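Researcher: Next sequence.
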Amino acid sequence: MTDNLKYDEARKRVKALKGFYTNLFFYVIVNIFLLIINLITTPGNLWVLWVVFGWGIGIALQAFSVFGKNVVLGSDWEDRKIKEYMDKNKTNSP
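Model: Next structure:
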């Protein structure tokens, strides 16, 4: 792979990460604002939860596309857990 292709891939990845973090920032800010409005105007009816849930699905899908399938556990999670259990068994062995 040439340096130009590597640079282009890295640039696309950074752009995707920036887009995700920007959307996440606005998700939090707007939903806090809407929650305050909801609690002031109609505290008995939490309609803001529909917005949080609906927009949250979009944020989750974007996170999955940006971070891939290892968004929750990380790419090296299995290796770390295996090592942890092996070390644990080593110390508990007679």
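Model: The CA atoms of residues 49 and 62 lie 20 Å apart. The chain has one domain: 3-68.
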